[in-house]
Design a protein that fits this description.
The chain is α+β, with helices and mostly antiparallel strands and about 120 residues long. It contains three helices and seven strands, in the order βββααββββα. It has helices at about 30-40, 45-60, 115-125; strands at about 1-5, 15-20, 25, 60-70, 75-80, 90-100, 100-110. The strands form two sheets. A four-stranded antiparallel sheet has the order 4-5-6-7, covered by helices on one side. The chain starts with a strand and ends with a helix.
């Protein structure tokens, strides 16, 4: 896996390129000292945006571990966190798709073969 980091904090996108699968994933692998030193170059609007992004990240209740394109949607492997207790559960598969412009979700569960389980659930739906 090849890791790189954008040094322009205005384009703050840590990414990792997995050369085996040729997929790009968002990851939190970076040098915190570089980020902190780059804060000197931000104006107050950028600092406000960054503070909001940090607060949103801390309040996140779902963390996507893996995404796969599948049929008319996306299979996502997610950890879910209880916002009251902070206890993390999972990972569980969810299938996200759209119908008439609205996002729908099907819980698939913990599985090594989510496509097979999803096929059975969609046939029965």
């Amino acid at each position: 896996m090849v890791m790189y980091w954008s040094h322009d904090i205005r384009n703050f996108y840590p990414t990792a390129l997995d050369t085996r699968q040729r997929s790009v994933y968002d990851v939190c692998m970076h040098n915190v000292n570089e980020i902190i030193s780059a804060l000197d170059h931000l104006d107050s609007n950028d600092l406000d945006r960054l503070a909001t992004a940090i607060a949103d990240r801390r309040n996140r209740t779902s963390t996507v571990v893996e995404r796969r394109n599948h049929l008319d949607g996306i299979l996502q492997l997610e950890y879910r966190t209880n916002p009251k207790t902070g206890k993390q559960r999972g990972p569980y598969w969810y299938f996200k798709y759209r119908v008439d412009g609205r996002q729908r979700s099907i819980y698939v569960g913990a599985s090594d073969e989510p496509e097979a389980i999803l096929s059975n659930k969609r046939i029965g739906a």
